[in-house]
Amino acid sequence: MAKKKILTIFGTRPEAIKMAPLVKEIEENSDALESIVCVTAQHRQMLDQVLNLFNIKPDFDLNIMKENQNLWSLTSDVLLKTKDVIDKVQPDVVLVHGDTTTSMAAALSAFYAKVPVGHVEAGLRTFDKYYPFPEEINRVFTDSVCTYHFAPTDMSCENLIKSQIPKEHIYKTGNTVIDALLYTVNNYDEKIAGLELNPDYKTILLTSHRRENFGEPIKNICKAVLDLVNIHKDIEIVYPVHPNPNVRKPVYELLDGHDRIHLIEPLEYAQFCTLMKQSHIIMTDSGGVQEEAPSLGKPVLVLRDTTERPEAVEYGTVKLVGADKDKIVSAADMLLKDENEYKKMSEAINPYGDGLASKRIVDVLKSIK
Ligand code: UD1
Ligand code: UDP
After folding, report:
1. Given 118, 196, 297, 357, which is the most exposed site by the fewest CB atoms within 10 A?
2. Is domain 202-346 classified as CATH 3.40.20.10?
3. What's the CATH superfamily of 4-175+353-367?
4. Which residues of 200-216 are buried (b: 16+ CB within 10 A; e: fewer)?
């Protein structure tokens, strides 16, 4: 029997991290599946860091990233350029991931070519179209054009059913981020290049890059950080700053030069895992970090008002604090002062997966007639 051609398309750092274990698993099943990888390079440097770590050599690199790019050009570049790849490869299935503009436009491109699409990390929802923006609509749209829905949790399966997706097209697989995390923490113990942490201090890891936090919200987050380092003389903040100019400018203007605030470049994934493990508290608006940190037993303060990942909030290891300066300071303050509260939030739980999601997805791909 001819092998099934699986064309995997991704473009940003989080998609690459979450697709890498799946690409490896498809490659390991080369008796039945042929793996073809197309990167849009919506992100350039941050994507390349992941490709290097997982040793993935794309068959197609569309190299679309532009400085301070906008959603319109991004969408049209992905749509047009993936068309040529799909025409050339003639895949049996296209796989996309999550809720980025790459995922949404690549899924549309495959749909126009009448190629069935598999959506990895399907079914996440806030049910609020502007939060997160544009990701909520990207994933609703992607789910609507996809044929195979690989949902990480029970809740994401239920969301798909609510969205009228036929039950027989929904597969509960767990999230491939846990495959990536477990593989990385079990195989690497990377030192963080150029960063000396003081063993007498508690480390707070911070990341923020959401479009809805641009402007005043990101400034409020920075002001909360300044308050925290002033109140607590035994903490240091490590912030790998996202290269988006809308993030970098205010962050460097407000936080640069403080001896207990380390603004660093985005870390290669294995080093970032080391940093998560070494941290006492994590403050983030990232989706992926919200999923990884509970597995490592690290309390997370989410710098957003809503989340499409409510599972860890329900377990009590993740708390929503938004971009409100006072809320951030008081939640961090409580974790730093109250041992019981810290203990409750630092229980290691794994609501997002068991490390076998990629295997389950490949089993489905192999079974498709
Ligand atoms: C994108 C996704 C978001 C995801 C995030 C992960 C969309 C609309 N947004 O947002 O869902 O959470 O990635 O990080 O798909 N840049 C670089 N080098 C890089 C990456 C980015 O210089 O390796 C700079 C460029 O100036 C680029 C800008 O960051 O134009 C914004 O990148 P973009 O992908 O549009 O937005 P993100 O905020 O990264
Ligand atoms: N990450 C990384 N280096 C960093 C910051 C984050 O490798 O300096 C990883 C993190 O562990 C997670 C992913 O990047 O797996 C999350 O990416 P991001 O926050 O950019 O996007 P989101 O998940 O919010 O879409």
Report:
1. 196
2. no
3. Glycogen Phosphorylase B; (3.40.50.2000)
4. eeebbbbbbbbebbeee
